Amino acid sequence: MVRYLKPYWKQVILLLLSVAFQVYGTLKLPTFMSEIVNKGIVEKDISFILLTGGKMVLWALGSAVGAYSASYFSARLGAAVGRDIREELFKKILSFSISEIDNFSTASLITRTTNDISTVQNTLIMMLSMMLRAPLMAIGAIYEAVNLAPDMTWIIGLSVAILLFLVIMILSIVMPKFMLYQKLVDKVNLLTRENLTGMRVIRAFNNEAYEEKKFERTNTKIKKTDFFIGSVMGLTSPLMMLLFNGTGLLCIWIGVSLLEADGSYLGKMMAFMQYATQVIMSFLFLAVIFVMIPRASVSAKRINEVLKTNPKISWKEKGGGDRVSEPSVEFKKVSFRYNGAEEDVLTDVSFKAVSGETTAFIGSTGSGKSTLINLVPRFFDASSGEVLVDGMNVKEYSEKGLMKKIGHVPQKGFLFSGTVKSNILFGVDSDDEKRMKKAAEIAQASEFISKLPDGFNSKIVEAGTNVSGGQRQRLSIARVVAKSPEIYIFDDAFSALDMKTDKKLREALKSVTKNSVVLIVAQRVSTIRDAEQIIVLDKGKVVGKGKHKDLIKKCKVYREICKSQLSDDEYEKELKDARA
User: Fold this and answer.
1) What gap in Å lies between CA 438 and CA 158, rounded to an integer?
2) Residue 125: pLDDT above 90?
3) Beta partners for 419?
């Protein structure tokens, strides 16, 4: 917390001054009360009572101003620190590779960014307002009590010892449950996110009851854990009140017995009771904070787990990014294996894709097509071998330099909440409407955009769920076209398009990709048959490389793919034409 408080040292000083003023003013009041009783009431001096009472009112008002200032600065500091932690955590998450995100899980990262930071922030606010005030108040009150009535100070010591014993007992019981509670919150977030995302599948298989039971089991565990924590913590208030009232009764009993020897003990007893109350309340506030700290420490550890995780993919500070006249992508004996996997997903893959040509990848499910092209923008790093962009290893690029060269369309076209316009121009610095409309036209999206209520200014909701899958894909393609990169990567980006739109879109793309490298992953032979280079993958290995006609003659795997997608007559005709 000290690291995050450093930029706000001026406000910390003002907070300390406010707390000190509040404590000093509060400690003055019992002394005034003692003087009013012993001098004003006993001696029936009305003017002294009024004068001292006026001083009490002024000091009370001053103490109230100090208390408000302390609360104001602690709330302001807590909010600022919460914002800074949230911002740092968010930036850290953005720097993670896919591997780190998968390790933590998306649901857990969301919980850490929201729930955990809120817990730390609320505890910090309490600490800033109470942690400073309570010790000062306790020390000051003990000092005044000892000077005022040394014969009764043992009462405070006994009360504090009992209080500390109760706090330690409660913490030892609830501490393990705080960690369990946060993990269960993670799981609830995971189940909620999973169910909302997979709602169509759940309904299609009529499995709502199964998902409800799965959620109910976790929800019940949270209820039981929360109930246990609440039950144990609920004991705090009655036990503290019992201690508080018991201390007051003991003060009166001892004070009355001492009155016989010293008549001035009446005022001292009343002041001592207030000081004893202040000491116990101070330790009570400390106890509340020490109850909150374990819960916050659990959240802080979870936040630190993210902040201290070093991304497996490290980038150069500077490197690459300049456009070249003849861009290229080259794989040199590249192999890749996921963390914890026993076998390589890709083995000894080598090829070169050059500008003005389309290089396509095809193969059965699980053959490594998507994994292969994900190595180009460094979503993962190759386990061995080299991935070169424009002749330079991708590991030598800065993140900005490499991403500047690449336009990537993922399998599932993802749209951000905003407008059609903001999504198409997502990767463009300028607000270029001409470029936007041209990109939409090439992506075959202009027609459906013109039918939307507000055209390019029509709203897009989160993840683009208010447009169809094909429309999402076309807008995702338009976004890449608007960026005008050196390297176009289409990861099965035409799968949701009908054959006619697919053909028109690929023909339109040729006008903007003639000086660029185009990498296409596809399931349909019709999408890639005109590619200058087709790479056939099977179980992570390159089993064929060439043009459509060459592969249908020489590559068994490619022939099988063609045969599965074409009618017998079409297949025989293709084979005959290739052999001619």
Assistant:
1) 82
2) no
3) 459
DSSP string covering 441-470, please? Answer: HHTT-HHHHHTSTTGGG-EE-GGGTTS-HH
- Region 90-117: mean pLDDT is 84
Handedness of CA 280, 281, 286, 287 (dihedral sign): positive
Structural domain harbouring 520: 328-415+483-546
| Cβ burial, residue 418 (10 Å; 0-12/13-18/19+) | middle
Number of domains observed in the structure of the chain: 2
Check whether residue 283 and residue 194 sit in a common domain.
yes
Q: Which of 475, 477, 473 is nearest to 495 (CA)?
A: 473
For 327-346, letters b (16+ CB in 10 Å) and e give: bbbbbbebbbbeeeeeebbb
CA 487 – CA 485 distance, rounded (Å): 5
Beta-carbon contacts of 121 under 8 Å, excluding residues fewer than 6 positions away, are 78, 79, 81, 82, 85
Q: For the full predicted model, state whether its pTM sits above 0.90.
A: no
Joined together, the tokens standing for residue 570 give 């079409």
CA dist., res. 508 & res. 19, Å (int): 70
Asked whether residue 201 falls in the same domain as residue 248, the answer is yes
Whether the predicted pLDDT of 330 surpasses 90: yes
Chain centre to alpha carbon of residue 548 = 46
**CATH number for the domain harbouring residue 397:** 3.40.50.300
* Residue at 262 is within a domain: yes
- Tokens representing residue 394 in the block: 């991708």
Is the pLDDT assigned to residue 348 strictly greater than 90? yes
Q: Identify whether the C-beta of residue 394 lies closer than 8 Å to the C-beta of residue 378.
A: yes
> Hunting for tokens 């509040």 — which residue is that?
22
Burial of 483 by CB count in 10 Å (0-12 exposed, 13-18 middle, 19+ buried)?
buried
Indicate whether 234 and 205 sit together in one domain: yes
Q: How far apart are CA 376 and CA 369, in angstroms?
A: 12
Q: Residue 353: pLDDT above 90?
A: yes
How far from the centroid of its chain's Cα atoms is residue 47's Cα? 64
Q: Where are the beta strands (DSSP E) in 247-389?
A: 328-336, 346-354, 358-363, 384-389
Please indicate, yes or no, if residue 322 is contained in any of the structural domains.
no
Q: Is residue 361 very low, low, confident or very high in pLDDT (cuts 50, 70, 90)?
A: very high
Same domain, 295 and 405: no
Tell me: pLDDT of 566 over 70: yes
421 found inside a domain: no
Do residue 244 and residue 347 come from a single domain? no
How confident is the model at residue 569, as a pLDDT? 85
The token pair at 445 is: 């999206």
CA distance 295 to 119: 8
* Tokens representing residue 193 in the block: 């996110």
pLDDT at 258: 63
Residues 393-402: tens digit of each pLDDT: 999 999 889 9
Q: What is the pLDDT of residue 107?
A: 76
